[in-house]
Amino acid sequence: MVLLLLAPQLDFFDQLNNNVPLFLVLGIVIFLIPTLASLYIAWSVIKPLRQLVTASQSLAGGGWQRPLSEPMAFAEIQQLAKAINAMALRLQQTLEQDREDFQGSKELYQQVVQNQTDFILRSQPDTTITFANDALCQALGLSLAEVIGLQWLDFISEEDLNIVLEKIASLTPEEPQFINENQDQRAGGVVGYTQWINRGIFNDNGQLIEIQSVGRDISTLKETQLALKQSQKFIESIAEATPSLLYIYDHVKQSNAYSNRSVGEFLGYSPEEIKAMGASLFANICHPEDLPRILAAIENCQKLRDGEILEIEYRVRDARQQWRWLLSRDLVFTRTETGQLWQTLGTAQDITQRKEAEIELQKIKTFLASIVENIPDMVFVKDAENLRFLELNKAGANLIGYTKEEVLGKSDYDLFPQEQAEWFIQEDQKVLLTGKVKDIPREFIQTSHGGVRILHTKKIPIADEVGRAKYLLGISDDITELLESEQRLQELARHIPGVIYQFRMRPNGTFHFPYASEGIRDIYGVTPEEVRDNSDAILAVLHPDELDGLFQSIYTSAANLTPWYYEYRVCFPEGRVIWVLGYATPQRESDGGTIWHGYIKDITEQKAKEYLLITEKERAENAEKILRKAQIRLERFNKKLSYLVDIDGLTKIPNRRCFNVRIKQEWGRLSRSQQPLSLILFDIDYFKNYNDCYGHPQGDNCLIRVARGVRRSVSRPVDLLARFGGEEFAIILPETDGEGALLVMQKVVNAIAQLAIAHEASPIGAQITISLGISTQFPSKENSPRTLIEQADRALYEAKRRGRNQYVVWTEELEGESSLS
Fold it and tell me: Backbone phi, then psi, for 24, in 5-degree steps?
């Protein structure tokens, strides 16, 4: 501007136009002056702005170097600097307070962490420990300095290591946590169990930078769980080993919750099949006639008190479509939180054979009762303890004039006059006291409608299993009409030529005539009284040539109980000889003697009477035949009943009941004679494997073949082979010492080997083998058969424990080993 104002007066432009250098200098000066001024102004503005930017960045980063100087070119920038300085001051104060609070929080955190009983650690991604609390250091038996830098994977057991590595590798920002339980090595070589909660820490790029872990010592819990599992396994082993059916029924779900192995073996259904039936279980397998009772029993379970047992018998259909009888006993197993019934525990036993025997026995009882009810003689039964009537048939009720209902439960004092009742009671007590049958030829009884009747009564004591009288059986024949007929016959016999008689041969072989009509005077020349006790007077008048044939006919008739018919001669002292014909019907008496009822006549004059006596003989023969048929039929029923009760239905050898009875009998007998008694118990090795491999029908066939094979080895009649239960058998060897028992044992082992029954599922051989336990005792009253059975059973158990397919003889050392184990 100055040059432009002064240039016209100074003639500057002319000079400048003619002077190029001057022009250039002047141009440069003119250009530099504004440029330098602009640069100064820009620097004056930018410098405080740069300080403001630097201060803002420091504040943003949480730091502050120094306050901004306030002498600045612009007031706005000065105000901004003041605000930033104030903000920086407040930020610095806040940071100082935060540092103090953080230090306090850090100390509090460390105090809390170090006082925790749980394990706390921090580690790098490769599990290198960067921090651990005192509880973890104490558990490891190391100081904190020793722990820092170790890898906590080194303390984990090998079986858990791979699982933990897989879980660490699976950590992601989305799923940064995992829980694991593992065994770990602790101070002193102790193995512990720890439950860890692990959390991964990730950076902004999603990389794992740290693992924070909190662990709880669960060693005691694990030990408790292991003990509980062992206890459960033990209980389950017992449940699976018991031969009884064991089950748990869920009343909430109305289905079977558990069933042991025996249920499947017995019914043929698997536990899964039974569980799948659910609420329809009973409808599927129970007999329709028993189903209402079973459903009612299930309802009654709701009323059961703890410890109370509900018992029921019913039929079920097995997988082979056969009906089996069960006896079930149920009790409360668990309840809900409200106390309602949840589950019941039940056991069931197979009582099929017993029920079939009871049914068959009931049929026989019904048949016998029908016979007794229709017998024309009076039959009654009294209780041996108080002599009250327990049974009375129709003939007895008709005889005494009271109904059966009026008599049962009453005594003789309630039915008859006191004097007569006392006589009855005395006779009953004598029979029960002596234990012998008593025959009362004539017994007078006052009936309620027919007056006094005369009875021929036999009173028989009936004892229980130990020989104590339990019942009194009476059989009475109303002989009132017979005696009246006899009287009429005697009166008639006086006018009938010949002899009506009873001729009896005693058990010792002597003879007499209990009864003879007056006609004996004409036939033999003797009186009835002379031959009532001894028949020698008649033998003296028989013709000598007739004696041998006469006695032979009598003995033949007695031996065969055939009617006697013989003609012979009688010689009188005056020399008169007559021919007589004798015929009679024999009958065996209870004491072993024989009595003939017959007639002897002079055949020269009394032919007209022959037809009457023959008719009487035929009637007697018919009565005898009827009686014999009834006896034969009764014997058959008794044999069949004995067979059903004492014989195992599958193997057809004696069962456990027969074994129990027999061993008690032999124990009592041998305790008196002081002879040894040996017992062998054996069972088939790995028989469950055999059933699983070949099936239960083949298993049954195996049991049958084993029973047959061993039965041929037990040769003495006094020995007994019995099925002891399942695949177990027992052999009773009376009057046999230990050496004799070993000989029998070897025969049994050889018999099993000769059977050569294949057993592919056996771990010890390709064929069926057996394990045996042997025990020998001298029976005494101070001991019992149970000791012998327990010893043989322990020996059998020891044979199994030693590997099976062998025998063990019981000794006192074995008793010691059993006690220690």
Answer: -65, -40
